[in-house]
């Protein structure tokens, strides 16, 4: 029995775990409850709004923001600043390399329209950010989310623009660690890990064109024998989908450009001129978090 338990644990221990924290608004200020919270990319709570509280509505609303060290930047009306304190920290134990997705700690989800793309529920008897990120990591997913205490969701991206809510709303204890929170009803804490997005994973034998992963294209087009598949792939455009399409048509080279264009070919017109990778910066129409070239900048793939 002892060995059995060890085996299960080791299956989820590919990487060590670490604790990640970021600054959030204090859940109360001068007895008033946190009603609104915005968190910035720099790790600071940039907008906090408190109102009401146990003594009723007689108190003035309070608002503040915090710098990247968690120190108070008081609201300019000094009468409102009484009772304001340093930022709180919100922490989670996660698998090494994982972090809060888009720097947010608690976001809206819905049973009828999942926020995680290819939402896959992992059956974990002991759910926590730590066990959930480990499980999703080992299955090759890029995103992991804990919800409703017991639920672990894995995903490949977001299906829509995320809607953060104040961290205090993610208040259900994790079934696998009662000192941590795991979302709430229709509220999820999402983490992002180092696995490459699935939409960017190419079919076997294909790789990025090593001399010029992002190359200058022109109206004359990169390939001498071009087939454009953009309309055929509408809504699912990703490098992987484009490569699959081109392979299916017998081509040995493929390229994505302009966010939603897919080109297939066998012959390159002239040695591709490499561009800085930052020029291939347009998000793919078919996947959040994956790039599909730029303006006359093409990402090239070939079958070896
Ligand atoms: C539970 O969570 C706390 C706080 O993040 C952490 O210190 C502790 O190691 C966790 N316990 C287990 C068993 O993972």
Describe this structure in words.
With 304 residues, the chain is mainly beta. The chain has 2 domains: 3-192, no CATH class; 198-303. The protein is 10% helix and 32% strand. Strands 8, 9, 10, 11, 12 and 15 form a 6-stranded antiparallel β-sheet that branches. The longest helix is centred in the first third of the chain and has 10 residues, at 2-11. The termini are far apart. The model is unreliable at 1-13 (pLDDT under 50). 2-acetamido-2-deoxy-beta-D-glucopyranose binds next to strand 7 and strand 14.
Associated small molecules: 2-acetamido-2-deoxy-beta-D-glucopyranose
Q: What is the C-alpha radius of gyration, as a whole number of Å? A: 24 Å
Number of domains in the coordinates? 2
Q: Averaged pLDDT, please?
A: 86
| Structural class by sheet pairing and helices | mainly beta
Please state roughly what percent of the residues sit in beta strands, choosing from under 5%, 5-15%, 15-25%, 25-35%, 35-45% or over 45%.
25-35%
Largest sheet: 6 strands, antiparallel
Helix and strand pattern: HEEEEEEEEEEHEEEEEEEEHEEE
Distance between the amino and carboxyl termini: 48 Å
How many β-strands, per DSSP? Answer: 21
Dominant shape: elongated
Number of helices: 3
Helix content: under 10%
Low-confidence stretches: 1-13
Protein name: WSC domain-containing protein
Signal peptide: 1-16
Domain WSC: 100-194, 208-304
InterPro entries: Sialate-O-sulfotransferase, WSC_carb-bd
